[in-house]
Task: inverse folding
């Protein structure tokens, strides 16, 4: 009992005298060592007088690490809160509704995103080309992350064969244009985002104006004509492009942005493959979760690109093999004489 009273007196006196935190904890540790030593078997051996501090050796030894763990946790919590406090609460509250603060709390807690990063997501405008397998999960996670304006262009209708992998659509919306189906799902997930559906094919006539209206482009289409068109227009408009592709069990993804030193899509794939060499999902099949994995990676890279968090795939390509649970990242470089981005310096 006397030992515990001693701790209380030391702490109370330290606070009253406004001792430095280090000095106060030094006195506490010193008193704890006295309690441990005076109750140790070595101290008691042959000592006819029992310790006056009370307690026993095991109890005092266990008390030290327990208190240290609690105080360490509190110190870590103070550090995290201090980093979060870098953004004034007033600034965050004026940028978001109270419902949005609760919705995006897990993002705001992240040091790499925080309040400023979430505000950049709120101010971002992202265009997703294709509302199929890759677009499905990319669109849902962009909406969940809080991207304020999401454009989606696709001229196709929802078909029963899509539902094996295109998780943004449902059986009840078979026959509905995919962009409308995607809008329904996105608004159900996050009513605070704006969805801009374009029910048409991306063509030369509209590509430049459409792509120029967005900050970041995600290409999840399954044909090379569209991929090359999107790449040309993204380069011409100076927009970063996240492009991904998949078939059967394997997918790949990279960020193409030659204005920042990375290659464009045509640098890496200068010529179209021969007909039949790279079959589509309709021709070769695809494992159901694979589009979700690659599409989620597209959304993840988009969040990183917008917020500036971590290291993105600019100048690198990730290749994922679902069949053997293997992934690897390779470097890709600009190609001298590229017809699309060769004039950029």
Result:
């Amino acid at each position: 009992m006397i030992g515990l009273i001693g701790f209380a007196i030391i702490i109370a006196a330290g606070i009253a005298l406004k001792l430095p935190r280090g000095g106060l904890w030094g006195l506490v540790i010193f008193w704890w060592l006295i309690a441990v030593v005076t109750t140790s078997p070595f101290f008691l051996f042959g000592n006819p007088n029992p310790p006056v501090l009370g307690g026993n050796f095991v109890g005092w030894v266990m008390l030290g690490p327990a208190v240290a763990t609690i105080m360490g946790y509190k110190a870590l919590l103070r550090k995290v809160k201090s980093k979060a406090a870098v953004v004034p609460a007033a600034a965050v509250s004026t940028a978001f509704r109270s419902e949005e603060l609760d919705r995006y709390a897990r993002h705001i807690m992240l040091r790499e995103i925080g309040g400023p990063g979430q505000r950049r997501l709120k101010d971002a405008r992202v265009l997703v080309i294709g509302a199929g397998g890759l677009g499905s999960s990319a669109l849902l996670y962009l909406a969940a992350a809080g991207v304020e304006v999401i454009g989606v262009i696709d001229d196709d209708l929802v078909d029963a064969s899509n539902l094996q992998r295109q998780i943004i659509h449902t059986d009840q919306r078979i026959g509905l244009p995919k962009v409308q189906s995607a809008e329904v799902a996105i608004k159900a997930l996050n009513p605070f985002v704006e969805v801009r559906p374009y029910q048409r094919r991306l063509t030369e006539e509209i590509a430049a104006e459409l792509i120029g209206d967005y900050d970041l482009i995600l290409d999840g289409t399954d044909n090379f004509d569209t991929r090359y068109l999107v790449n040309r227009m993204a380069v011409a408009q100076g927009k970063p492009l996240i492009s991904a592709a998949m078939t059967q069990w394997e997918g790949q993804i990279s960020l193409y942005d030659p204005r920042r030193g990375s290659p464009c899509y045509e640098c890496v794939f200068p010529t179209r493959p021969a007909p039949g060499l790279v079959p589509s999902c309709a021709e070769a099949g695809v494992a159901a979760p694979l589009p979700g994995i690659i599409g989620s990676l597209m959304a993840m890279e988009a969040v990183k690109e917008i917020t500036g968090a971590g290291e993105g795939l600019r100048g690198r390509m990730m290749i994922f093999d679902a069949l053997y649970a293997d992934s690897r990242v390779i470097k890709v470089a600009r190609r001298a004489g590229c017809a699309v981005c060769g004039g950029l310096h």
About this structure: The longest strand covers residues 241-247. The mean pLDDT is 85.
